Amino acid sequence: MDVSEAVDRRRAARALDEKPVSDGLISELIGAMRLSPSCNNNQPWRVIVARDPASLDAIKTSLTKGNVWASKAPLILVVCSRIDDDCKLADRRDYYLFSTGLAVGEMLLRATEMGLIAHPIAGFDALAIKEKLAIPADHVLITLVICGYPGNDVSLLSEKQLLAEVERPPRKPVGENFFNGLWGKPWA
After folding, report:
1. Is residue 68 a contact partner of residue 128, using CB atoms and an 8 Å limit?
2. 0.90 exceeded by the pTM?
3. CA-to-CA distance for 79 and 140, rounded, in angstroms?
4. I need a surface site. Which of 90, 107, 128, 168 has the fewest CB within 10 A?
């Protein structure tokens, strides 16, 4: 699979199989993140690989109602960073979130290539998870990446989530967020 195919095939799917993800595939996901670019090669991301029952339970009991589907995940990557671990430039350009997002993005494409679902979510009690998993207070829990094999059980999905399993959610028109030469002049 080439990069353009992985970009096209990557989806935020939610129907998961509970089959464990092998150490080899987890190492591939980690490898994709490790090779990601970051400001001055600071690599500010810190990731807890949660696959044992205790850490998975700590996370799953902290999910919001809309993310109950993630309770089937055999693997959850807990992605953290902190402002002091990456470049801090003028005009509030604190790169730790950007660099960490790049690492997650590259990992999502690798997961897609390997036939896995890797779905980042924001709906969870970050403070509860930080406490349960001993994440230092100065770190930001940015996202949970719900990982596993595609499954057929859709019983935990809402109607909106069911539709998203079949159709890619619509994207904004290009001219709404891409500009030609100056702000507000839509890219055609």
Report:
1. no
2. yes
3. 9
4. 90
